[in-house]
Design a protein that fits this description.
Layout lengths: L4 E4 L5 E5 L13 H6 L3 E5 L15 H16 L5 E5 L1 H13 L3 E5 L4 E4 L3 H14 L2 H7 L5 H13 L2 H9 L1 E4 L7 E6 L6 H9 L3 E6 L5 H4 L1 H6 L4
Helix pairs in contact: 2-3, 4-7, 5-6
């Protein structure tokens, strides 16, 4: 599977961006200008079942990771200089790292394991309910750090989101993809996705973990300057 890609900038230094569940490549609109200014050609990918990418009723984390690797090769040639994954996109990135081989990898408030085995019909119904609730007005009300563009982009992304694709990955067999030494992890504090225990294990394995107290799950929205400063140049 090859994913839909939005490109910003030009040149040979490629940065791959992977959004979170129910998002899209547009979710990175705040971040992409700073990466372009640093000389990156940015590839924002829509993950399977999101945005303009294909749906996949048999999606697994491994299949999503393989799609990322295939798409990066088609658009970027050699291994990217930088890869950033947020939340579900970070989980997919963690699974893709052995084949993607970026110079720098950044996981943003992202789990690195999946329990799997959830009831597909129940998860599909929950995703459908969440998708319907992600309206422009509702996002502005529940996300105080969002501006109107954030809310509009996320509401549009929710309308393009396919609950069945996401439910397929949740009901598939789980797995764990520990990030290698040198990976950068940026987590909100407190985090619902990276526990203190998980962070301690990662640090002991040479992963660089940065904590941003008070940050939102989308940490670049509430702590933009701090987030950008942690991204390798």
């Amino acid at each position: 599977m090859e994913l839909h890609v939005r490109e910003w900038g030009q040149g040979n230094r490629v940065a791959v961006l992977l959004h979170g569940m129910m998002g899209s490549s547009d979710s990175w609109w705040r971040v992409t200008p700073s990466l372009v200014d640093r000389g990156y050609r940015v590839l924002g990918m829509d993950l399977p079942g999101h945005g303009h990418s294909p749906r996949d009723p048999d999606l697994t984390i491994e299949r999503a990771a393989a799609a990322v690797v295939t798409t990066a090769a088609a658009h970027g040639g050699s291994a990217p200089a930088l890869a950033i994954g947020h939340s579900f996109g970070g989980l997919v990135l963690a699974a893709a790292l052995p084949d993607l081989r970026p110079e720098h990898a950044v996981l943003v408030d992202a789990p690195t394991s999946s329990r799997g085995g959830w009831d597909r019909d129940e998860v599909r119904a929950e995703y459908e309910q969440d998708r319907r609730a992600r309206t422009f007005d509702g996002l502005l009300r529940t996300h105080p750090h969002y501006n109107e563009q954030d809310a509009r982009i996320e509401a549009d992304a929710a309308q393009s989101f396919d609950p069945d694709t996401a439910a397929a990955s949740a009901s598939a067999t789980g797995g764990s993809w520990p990030p290698p030494a040198g990976t950068i992890v940026i987590r909100a504090m407190p985090s619902d996705y990276v526990s203190d225990e998980a962070a301690a294990v990662m640090r002991s394995n040479g992963v660089i973990v940065h904590d941003l107290p008070g940050a939102l799950h989308s940490v670049w929205v509430s702590h933009f300057d701090e987030f950008v400063a942690l991204i390798p140049r």
